[in-house]
Amino acid sequence: MFTFKAGGVPEHFNTPWNLATEKNPDIFNRYELQWTDYPGGTGDLLHALDTGELDVAVLLTEGAVKGITSGIPAKIVRFYVNSPLRWGIHTKNGAGILFPAGMQGKKYAVSRLNSGSHLMSFVNAKKHGLEISPDDFEIVGNIESARRALKNESAGLFLWERFTTEPYVESGEFERIGECPTPWPSFVVAVRNEVIHNNEAELSEILDHVFMKALQLKSNPDYAVPFIAEKFRLNPRRTAEWLSQVEWNVNNRENDEALLEVVDTLQQLEIIPPQNTSAVLDEIRYYVKSLQSA
User: Fold this and answer.
1) Start-to-end C-alpha separation, the chain
2) Are 116 and 42 in contact (CB under 8 A)?
3) Which of 158, 221, 243, 284 is deepest in the core (most CB within 10 A)?
4) Which residues, 6+ apart, have CB-to-CB distance to 165 below 8 Å?
5) Structure confidence by residue, pLDDT tens digits, 139-155
6) Is residue 288 within 8 Å of 203, Cβ to Cβ?
7) Are strands 86-92 and 174-181 parallel, antiparallel or unpaired?
8) Count of alpha carbons within 13 angstroms of residue 285, beta-carbon side
């Protein structure tokens, strides 16, 4: 029996995967779906794809593009979340760092190089005319280590999804001095090339089931809000706000325009080398069709 090893961050966005894994339908009598949390974020997930530790990763769009163009043997098979991610820009409470000018020269806590917290620091800096050097990053691994880095002032700034960090803002540990929404759909599903080649039909079936769970969550907020708030220790009011804004890609929309925008931005920031855009698209994506609409 083939086992699909899937993973992503332990955050509210991945509730459909959690439900699909915990409540397996009959289709999983023919193959297994395992889910693993990766608190280290996109950089950690890219490493797991590269080593074969994971077959399927749910990760940030810009991180997936960077990783695949750098040689990770995988492709984007579907957009997962069509809505942007709202990155909060955080400091230690009382640090007195003003947004955005006061960010110049400050050190950023990032989970890993090429992670979302790393790449979005460049996107935000470009937007506000700030400069960042390679020495401006403190690699911390996960949010718990980032909390320690801000507390002991080995880093002054931390970009992370704003609803996830809401408890630390409300408790007075963090101060959110600004936001940086992604200018593109936030999450994609990336799959190792070998799995796409050998198990495309089964992969499509699993993805259809995951997006069915997403549709159920969106259509039943009276169930979804308290469930998600309790599972991820979030404020129910904030969870309801997030659920109303998030747009899982339940219609399996393809979006080359968004991928080209990511490629163009990363090339302008010199994070990936200049390449022919058509060649880049062929390299990074292979959209898997939904069996339900076939």
Assistant:
1) 25
2) yes
3) 158
4) 88, 90, 143, 174, 176
5) 998 999 999 999 999 99
6) yes
7) antiparallel
8) 23
Residue with token string 């800096």: 125
Looking at residue 268, what is its pLDDT? 87
Strand blocks (E) in the chain: 2-8, 31-37, 56-60, 74-81, 86-92, 108-110, 137-139, 157-161, 174-181, 187-192
Domains of the chain, with CATH numbers? 2-84+185-284 (3.40.190.10), 86-181 (3.40.190.10)
Q: How many CB atoms lie within 10 A of CB 229?
A: 19
Q: How far is CA 180 from CA 84, 175, 260, in A?
A: 10, 15, 20
What is the predicted pLDDT for the residue at 83? 96
Cis peptide before 185 (omega within 30 of 0): no
Separation in Å, CA 69 to CA 44, 122, 153: 16, 18, 34
Percent of the chain with pLDDT over 90: 82
User: What's the one-letter identity of residue 96?
Assistant: G
Q: What is the pLDDT of residue 24?
A: 60
| Cα–Cα nearest to 81, from 229, 231, 246, 206 | 246
Among candidates 59, 100, 66, 106, which has minimal Cα distance to 80? Answer: 59
Query: What's the pLDDT tens digit per position in 168-193?
Result: 999 999 999 999 999 999 999 999 99
Do the beta carbons of residue 288 and residue 77 sit within 8 Å?
yes
SS3 content of the chain, % helix, strand, coil (to 5): 45, 20, 35
